Amino acid sequence: MKSSLFRVSVIVSLLAACAAGQTQIDLRTQAKDVDFSGASSTKPIQTSTSLPAACSLGQTFLLTSASPGQNLYVCTAANVWTRQGGAAMLAQLSDFAVTWTSAQTLAIGANCSTATPCNVRIGSTVYSFTLGCTATLTGGTGNAFIYFDSTGTLTIGQNLTLSTSAGCVAQSGVSSFPPGSIPLYTWSALSGAWNTTGGTDYRAMLATKGIETSTGLLAVDSATSTTLSLDTAVVPTYLTATAVLNFPSIPNGACAADLSFTLAGAAVNDAVAPGLPSALEAGLIATMRVSAPGTIGVRLCNLSGSALTPASATYRATIVRSF
After folding, report:
1. What is the Cα–Cα distance from 300 to 315, expressed in whole angstroms?
2. How far is CA 105 from CA 36, 50, 170, 193, in A?
């Protein structure tokens, strides 16, 4: 009887010892072909409403404050979180992606490298970027506009207080994407901190803006732009100029010596439409002609019946040259 009691006591003691000091299993090194398909739930990813300041390569995180499809982050370098597009966004662009790395820092084009350059075409010129950059915020509330300007410069336009690393520049006084720029992103800031989910993606893999000329227009492509001009073989040339003329006294029945003024581009034999002063004295007759290349001659003749001294006045000459 004592022997049985002793055996029971030993077994109970051993069970209690095992319960108090259970060994934890390291699944990474001690498990093989782990199958969790039968588990009632699994949560292999950390979650929170904000990204941790520190992370190590390969760590994943679900940002619960972000929109679905834009809330999965992977640590792609020490303390650098990169947002992932998810299964439905595998086709999303990676060139010139902008990511939130901290409350003060945005990473722009982090994947651009010598081995995998990021290219952008402006006009007929292709610019190649082999280095990403960062935008570091130190103050302000508002939006940053991230874009390429017409010279191929990666620019952060804003009304904030920030600095940039090599590879991009900060431009103050910008409240929208400038004409002729290529938009990449906007990102909002509040009280000197980048909003975690404040980015809006404006990148487009394929885009074009065709310019078609109509009658009378010509288009000439240069490295970064298209210049439109008039086709003077079709559209009439319009020239005009004014001058204040002061004629001397003109006897009745006579004409004063011609006075002249400059009209650039005027050619001899061009027809001139005269623009006469509204207060021209009654009885005076005025004529205009191109007296020499670029020069308008004005003649006043007096048929009033008595001598007249015309008042100083403004005269206009207009030439409409048709081809």
Report:
1. 12
2. 38, 15, 14, 9
pLDDT tens string, the chain, 323 residues long: the values are 555 554 545 455 545 555 555 666 666 666 677 777 777 877 888 999 888 989 999 999 998 887 777 788 899 989 988 888 644 443 457 889 999 999 999 999 998 988 889 999 887 789 999 999 999 999 999 999 999 998 999 999 999 999 999 999 999 999 999 988 999 999 999 999 999 999 999 998 777 777 788 888 888 877 667 888 888 778 888 899 999 999 999 999 999 999 999 999 999 999 999 999 999 999 999 999 999 999 999 999 999 999 999 999 999 999 987 76
Domain boundaries, the chain: 93-201, 237-321
* CATH assignment, 237-321: 2.60.40
C-alpha to C-alpha distances, 226 to 125, 177, 178, 203, 313, nearest whole angstrom: 12, 19, 17, 22, 44
Q: What's this model's pTM, rounded to 2 decimal places? A: 0.50
